[in-house]
Amino acid sequence: MTVVGFLQSKWEIATLKVVLCLYIALARTHRVRVWGVPMGKASRDKGKRGEREAAALLREYGFEARRGCQYQGGPDSPDVVADGLPLHFEIKRTERLSLYPAIEQATQDAGAEKIPIVLHRQSRKPWLAIIPAEELLSLLRQVYPNN
């Protein structure tokens, strides 16, 4: 028996449809994925702005950087491409970051040749860089070999 079989009237069926539509609309508004409903345009736009901001930050410090190709996923398509740096940037422009899933995604996409880095920023806050400790210590060893 289906869910509709339990409903007694057309009124109950109509109410269920309205509730489901409101639930999906609320999920889209709050950037939640429900039943495969994709993220909203505003959320995608915020991610793109974050990628442009991160690339601008790298350029501000003298590195050549630009947004990557977002349709592929993998080592050839980081969120931000920084030519000449052995780094894979994953950009997260969100109020709440799921830290371990973000660094796992960056690590998986970085491949064996690049160091995974997650650049994260909340609204009205400075950028933060998240890097696995082993990678940070390896970089420090290269910069300060006598210590």
Structure commentary:
- InterPro entries: Hjc (IPR002732), Restrct_endonuc-II-like (IPR011335), tRNA_endonuc-like_dom_sf (IPR011856).
- It catalyses: Endonucleolytic cleavage at a junction such as a reciprocal single-stranded crossover between two homologous DNA duplexes (Holliday junction).
- One of its GO terms (molecular function) is crossover junction DNA endonuclease activity.
- It holds the Pfam family Hjc.
- This is Holliday junction resolvase.
- This protein is of the alpha+beta class and 147 residues long.
- The protein folds into 2 domains: 1-38; 41-143, 3-Layer(aba) Sandwich (Trna Endonuclease, Chain: A, domain 1).
- It has helices at residues 3-6, 10-29, 41-60, 99-110, 133-143; strands spanning 65-67, 80-82, 87-92, 115-120, 128-130.
- The chain has a 3-stranded mixed β-sheet with strand order 3-4-5.
- It is elongated and about 80 Å long.
- It starts with a helix and ends with a helix.
- The mean pLDDT is 81.
